[in-house]
Amino acid sequence: MTAEIASNKLTRAILRVVEPPVFKYRSFTLGLLTLLTVFFMFQASQLKPNAGWLKMVPKEHPYMQTFMEYYKDFGGANTVLIALHNKKGDIYQPEFMETLRKVEEDVFNVQGVDRARVTSIFSPSILYVEVVEGGLSGENVIPSDYTPTPEMMERIRINVGKASVIGRLVSEDQESALVQFELLEHDPSSGTTADLEEMSKPMSERLRAAWSSGARPGELPPEGGPSFGQRIKAVSGILMANQPGEGEASLDYVKIGEKLEEIRKKYESENTSIHIVGFAKVVHDMTSESYKVAGFFFIALIVMGALLWIYLGSLPLALIVVSTSFVSCIWEMGLLHLVGYGLDPFAMLVPFLIMAVSVSHGVQYVSSWANEISTRNASSHQASLATFRSLAIPGLVALLTNVVGFLTIYLINIQIIREMAINAALGMVGVIMVNKVLLPAVLSFIKLPNLAAFRIATEKRERIGDSIFKKMTVFCRRKPAIITITISLLLGVYGASQYHNVQIGDTTDGVPELKPDSRFNQDAAEVARHFTMGVDHLKVIAESFDNGCVDYGVMSELDRFSWYMKNQPGVRDVLSLPELAKIANSGLSEGRLDAEVLPRAPQSLAQSTALVPPTSGFLNDTCSALALFIFTTDHKAKTIDDLTNAVKAYVKETQHDHRVKFRLASGNIGVMAATNEEVKRNELPVIAYVYVVIVIFLWLSFRTLSGVLCVIIPLSVVTALGYAVMVWMGIGQKVATLPVLAFACGIGVDYGIYSYSVIAAGLRKGMTLEDAYYQKMRSTGKATLFTGVGLASGVALWLFSGLQFQRDMGVLLLFGFTANMIGAIVVLPALAHFLGKEELKYAGHDLTLGADDALSEEDGKKKS
Amino acid sequence: MSRMMLPAAAAMLAVWAAVAGAEEEFSAPAAVSADETTAETPAAEQAAPTDVPRPALMVTGAAKARLLDLSQAGKRLVAVGQQGVIVVSEDGGANWKQVPSPASVMLTRVRFLTDKLGWAVGYDGTILHTADGGLNWTLQHSDPEARVLYDVLFLDTQTGIAAGAYGAFYRTTDGGKTWEQQHFPLAEMGQHFNRLLRLDAQTLFAAGERGLLARSMDGGVNWEMLKSPYAGSYFGAIALGGRSVIIYGMRGNVYVAQDVTTAPTQDPAQYDPYTAETLTDPAAIAALGWRRVDSPVKESLFGGTRLPDGSVLLVGINAVALKSDPALGSLKLVKLPAAETLVDVLPYGGKLIAVGRRGVQNLGALP
């Protein structure tokens, strides 16, 4: 009781502080906001698309520590394959061979390509050795005196057979050839990979180092000991790490993608088809597709505007809501650029969300404002002030809940998700400024041109709704309420029971980001058909000791491990130094197949391994660490899980020579394994944190158990059902979808808070639940209904995206928005039937805080 | 050939060690990170495990392993290969299953004396024995110091020989319970024995590295070295009936002898494989009892079989296949529906089955 009064006093005190800038000095505020908006518009125009491979990676995961530690020795997972297919037969034709040579040459000259890791049959590192009568003979597969003549083609054909490159660089049917290369994660012209080594240290260690030295790694510590400010700067610098900054430029994938596309255009002909696969190409394709999604944004904006026009019955009002929402997106993007981020295709979701949240709040505000004018005969200013008083606090609470909710996904240590969290939080700053400052101030100036006509139109429209809403009050009665609650609880239980069926990671063939029928995925399938090598590979690092690769025990352990892994389901092939050494040994032993073994004698072993250069990516300089490439048939979560388990099982049960330490993992599958494990580890905690935050905020805003439960129960039913939707639609829990359920909760709680606050206010004023619900439906309920439909139609556009993950996100958001809307208008009152009595204890305490007083005030000049 | 490479290899190793050492000085100590398996002793401080034969891993893709030889035990097909893999097929090659093997080294040859009794040999002087047609195997001989064995031949249930790299030659008279290494001038030469053939009760024939051709008239106790028309290696030989053989090997070289017991011999002590020359004059070749069969390709041939029509089919690198006319006068290239190197082929029930780098390949109708 006393707490309630105190809290009312507190809210009034807050309002006393925030009202003047919004209403008293509104002209000044508007001017300032306009300037800021122009500034952010400029900032937003500087935003660049920015997708980074490392951003989607959980850097703290043990697998990724291995990845980072050996990045320099073995490259990362950033492989690109270009397959050339000769439609006129085998590859041994001068014209085709020339094309292959030129493609390799062009690839070599693309900036950002790791020149040491460009491999094709033209590479000098691809050679064969054979014993001929009276000595050794060995040469590159493409002889040094290469000229495109038919005789040369025959020599190459024979050499290819001897060099064991079939399946790797030449297809099984020998009608396709491959150019394989790796990209440097950082553009060599402007940065180094030094940061990667830094990244391989645990976060805690890096933070401690930064704190004690007062400098970020690579910077000189300040002289005479660091100041507190410098320490903070250094630590925050690390927390925000990996944003392109001083001396370190991320690789421009889009540019490389364009270059590759140029190569394709240049050499693809009616005789030769060119297939390009690799992450850089994915990013390029994704970026081009995501521009189309940017188009969706404007379509959504227009659709929303049209719906608002119909709903509000006034074009100017509709335009105000749409344009203020657009302003909040400008703020979001401007702030995003200001803090140094780029626009990632994954984060395309955020502007939609921001617009959604902004429209949802804007509509609430505008319809309440219009309601004040038309039903209570208030002036624009009075109406705006009254609306401000009734909606500012619940609105702000809802928005802050969103902000904190969005920020909880920051706990997932995957940079792309963290960027999304920050991005969304920045957007919410925009929404708060726009809806709690800009919109009230603007509305206080707006004169409805034909007030009488507007009123008539409003009343007419409301009467249409009224009859429906009147009927909907049945949800507040006992029997329907029991039925509603029972059904929704059953649905919730069903959804929760589906939870364990949700796949972690990707469920589709091909690259999950793109649609299965996209050019890229067709290319990937084409490459997979003809080569045992593919893009999907798991790299296991085998650590031993210096010159471990001339130790028979070590090498045969690796050989056995390779053989073990090769026989796991989902493995196409395993490539490793022992494998290549065996081929070399065979070459030195008259080419006989029964010499494809590791020789026992150290000198023979050295002789065989010496033929494999460190640049091959199979060994480091000291030969103390070897990389095993495990090519997989796909990257489905189950395959990945089985493989990492197989590695662990081998180490536990089969490993004989324990001087070798097998470490997971690198390669794109290694990264996916780490990501999947990180997602799996985080998915429940994240949802839990979001709910904890929501519960706290609900308690703070309503101070009743009823308020918390009436909002939280429908919300959790929707979350649980979300899992069932994921199972039905075959959507996996992954980096792209993990934030979506949290975001959907954010929107859902919005609906809940608006709905419950009006019902509770009504109850406290002494209305029956049915009346309160009826009032609610007429005011915020209607707006909830409207925004639910509007938002759903906005995200529905995502189903047409060329990007698979955006379609997945679209499905989940569509479901989340719609289901939460139904929850707020159907389940919530049913729960209130049983729980709402608690509000009666606070009868007389006005939840809307002096909104009614506003009408008696004279254009805001008097203060209560 | 390997002897020639030793100095070069030693030099390479030395340079490498020097480079590696220098690198080590410059490289910063790697960050030790928390990994699931870090708790154990650092790798280098652990002792190397004892070198004992380990059973082969039982795997799903055994029939796709590198398989080196294919034999018939009654109606059952048995193939052996890398990692100690032994696979058997009861249905003429359609389905294969791996059977447990007590060794995980590469097995190079499997041969059956009867439907039940068989032996397989391989690296580390490994000799395996089966008494039930290839389903269960026991280890008869293994020694990490021993050379790889390329062939095994039993004359009866008690007497057998096994031979392989660098003149390795073993003999048993107790069915393989004990194997005695044999030392005789031909073995002392240190050339690989690649193939052993039995031509009749006591007449044996051997072909091997760098022109090694030999015969034994007393069941493999004493061996005489034959003069070779070719200085390169022979990888295999097929008995053509009587004392006639066809030999094949490196770079598509194929020769036929009518009667190896009448071919001229030479003193192994006088033979220097590094100065030996390949004969080109047909008359000179004929004087040694051989006839050259011209090959259309220069690919090494690793295996072959006699087809029912009397012709010979030879296979080798990159699935090259050569078929002779029944009179063995010439060889022509045939296209087999196979991939990568083949080392053995076997006609079974009118179908051709091959083994090689890709494991078992069913090649359909006989060529």
Q: Choose one word for the global shape of chain A.
A: elongated
Distance between the termini of chain B: 35 Å
Number of helices of chain B: 3
Strand order of the largest sheet of chain A: 2-5-1-6
Question: Quick one: overall form of chain B?
Answer: globular
Please count the helical segments of chain A: 29
Question: How would you briefly describe this protein structure?
Answer:
The complex is a heterodimer of chains A (864) and B (367). By secondary structure, chain A is an alpha+beta fold. Chain A has helices at 2-24, 26-45, 62-69, 71-74, 94-108, 150-162, 194-199, 203-213, 228-239, 253-267, 279-312, 315-338, 349-376, 380-408, 415-445, 451-472, 478-497, 519-530, 552-566, 577-588, 602-609, 637-654, 667-702, 705-729, 738-764, 769-796, 804-835, 837-840, 853-856, and strands at 79-86, 113-119, 127-132, 135-140, 176-183, 272-278, 537-543, 571-575, 625-632, 661-666.
